[in-house]
Every structure is written in C-alpha cells, then in structure tokens.
Design a protein that fits this description.
Elements lengths: L2 H9 L5 H25 L5 H26 L2 H26 L10 H18 L8 H36 L10
Helix pairs in contact: 1-2, 2-3, 2-5, 3-4, 3-5, 4-6, 5-6
C-alpha cells in the first residue's frame, strides 16, 4: 500500500524529496523484516501471508529499481537492476511450478537469499537517499552494494535451479504434471 505514496513522494518537486522516498522505502523494508521475524518467532504464519509477503517485497524493489534507472539513466545501474528483476521473475516462476509439483520446499528461502535481500535493500536505500550524482561517496557505495547484491542474486538463482533441477528434468520428461498455461 505504500508503493503509490513512495512513487508520488519520489516525483514531488523539492530538494529533499528523495530523502523522504528513501525513508519510506527503508520503513517498508524494516517493517517487512520485523513482520516476518515476529510471524516466524510466534508461529503466526499463514498461507496468505506466505503468498503476499514476497509479492509485496518484489513490487517495492522493482518499483524502486525502475525509479533509480530513470533518475540515474546509465548502464551501470541498469545492468544489476536487470539481473535482480530477471532473477525475481525466474525464481517466482520456479516456486510456482514447484508448488504445482507439490515440492515447494525444494526452493525455500535460504540464508543466501536473505543476505542478498539485506544487501539489496541497503543499496537501494542509499541510492534513493542521494541525488543521482556518481561523485557522491554514498552513491558509489550504493552502486557497489547493488553489484554485490546482483552477484548474490545470480548465486542464489543457480543454487535454487540446481536444487530444483531433478524435478525440472522429471517434469520436462513428462514424469510430473506441468502447471496450466495462461
């Protein structure tokens, strides 16, 4: 629900609107982490929450990356953003397919995915909190962290695909029931 507000604030005229947008992004990231932590700790997880949480995460990250691509307008930010968004699409499709095969646990979230998400959120926060000027140290730090996040993104995607490979091959060979096509 914060995404339209986040986008509107990002585009408001003024000197420090990027700081407010970064604050909203950071607040969304922190409350998302806290919500997940408390739900697991107190055993309050639900199937709806398990579905909605990653969707909300992906929507705000993709939105923030699109805003940053627009404001930075360079290949150096666009490349890691493409890697991150592409991985999210591949892994979302893989998780959906594995759920159809009753093997969702094969592609469960790992420590690597959590590390990737943390670094990615910090990178995006830093980039949102500063004007798109490459000579700024915090912007350079944001770029560096975004590249680290994109490398972890590729690593985690490879790990997920490797774990799911036997099921993927079985499904491709007709051994499993493939998901319905749209």
């Amino acid at each position: 629900m914060l995404i339209p507000v986040f986008v509107a604030i990002y585009f408001l005229p003024g000197e420090n609107t990027y700081l407010w947008a970064a604050f909203l992004f950071g607040a969304a990231a922190l409350t998302d982490w806290l919500d997940g932590y408390l739900a697991r700790k107190w055993g309050q997880t639900t199937p709806f929450g398990a579905f909605l949480d990653p969707v909300a995460d992906k929507l705000i990250v993709v939105t923030a990356l699109l805003l940053l691509i627009d404001s930075h307008s360079n290949l150096w930010l666009t490349l890691p953003a493409i890697v991150i968004v592409g991985r999210e699409i591949v892994i979302s499709a893989l998780r959906e397919w594995m759920a159809e095969m009753n093997a969702r646990g094969v592609v469960a979230v790992s420590w690597l995915g959590r590390a990737k998400t943390t670094i990615q959120m910090v990178a995006i926060f830093l980039l949102l909190a500063n004007p798109a000027e490459l000579e700024r140290p915090w912007v350079l730090m944001g770029y560096a962290l975004l590249y680290v996040a994109s490398l972890l993104t590729l690593w985690s995607m490879i790990n997920y695909l490797r774990s799911a490979w036997p099921m993927l091959v079985e499904g491709a060979m007709g051994g499993g029931e493939p998901p319905e096509q749209d």
